[in-house]
Specification:
single chain, mainly alpha
């Protein structure tokens, strides 16, 4: 069995990002710099934490962040060029650029299952809220969630009721890494002392890597 991808941070990484946030005076995205997930969180942080932002305002800032010349890679491309230049997985069901970003925002709200990309945010006492409707979407990077309080990202545009499969507490730490074949769900259960009923076989089809 292959190694399960790690979605949580070590205690050292938590301390590192908290220190960077103190220096920057704002929340610092705990994802690969220049990646799609990093770009989303970085954009919301720059626009203002704990404030609602229209998707139009988010989009304009997101493009600015992802076209920063300082982020040009070895291939000579900005993150935006790399992000938009990836071929569609399917010509029939493939998503356009805006749909990809919508999907990646939803992925960053995930705290359970085999690919809980939102765990790093929760470990830093934060989450992303999706407010309003699909046509008039508003986004918020919610930070400063009290340590120990359950993290519950808001998604008002959800089409059906949602009951979290796992309870994640803000600011939790994983003192042990996952083994070669251990699921992330098991590590989270051990860290927060809550049982997960989500199958570790669930797949998240994210279009951009964070």
């Amino acid at each position: 069995m292959g190694r399960v991808r790690r979605h949580h941070m070590s205690m050292d990484d938590q301390a590192k990002f908290r220190g960077q946030a103190d220096e920057a005076g704002r929340f610092v995205a705990p994802y690969r710099r220049g990646g799609g997930y990093w770009g989303i969180v970085e954009t919301l942080s720059l626009l203002g934490e704990n404030e609602e932002h229209s998707f139009a305002a988010f989009w304009a800032k997101f493009m600015e962040v992802m076209t920063d010349p300082s982020l040009v890679g070895k291939d000579g491309k900005t993150p935006w060029e790399s992000f938009t230049g990836r071929p569609l997985r399917s010509q029939v069901t493939g998503k356009n650029v805006i749909e990809k970003v919508h999907q990646n925002i939803r992925v960053l709200q995930r705290l359970g299952g085999a690919n809980p990309y939102g765990l790093k945010l929760a470990q830093l006492n934060a989450c992303i809220d999706v407010l309003g409707t699909q046509q008039e979407m508003r986004l918020r990077l919610r930070t400063g969630i009290p340590t120990g309080e359950e993290v519950l990202p808001i998604r008002e545009i959800r089409r059906r009721s949602y009951v979290p499969s796992v309870k994640i507490r803000a600011g939790y730490s994983v003192t042990e890494g996952t083994g070669g074949s251990e699921s992330m769900a098991v590590a989270v259960e051990r860290a927060v002392g809550k049982a997960s009923t989500t199958s570790t076989g669930e797949k998240v089809k994210a279009e951009a890597e964070g």
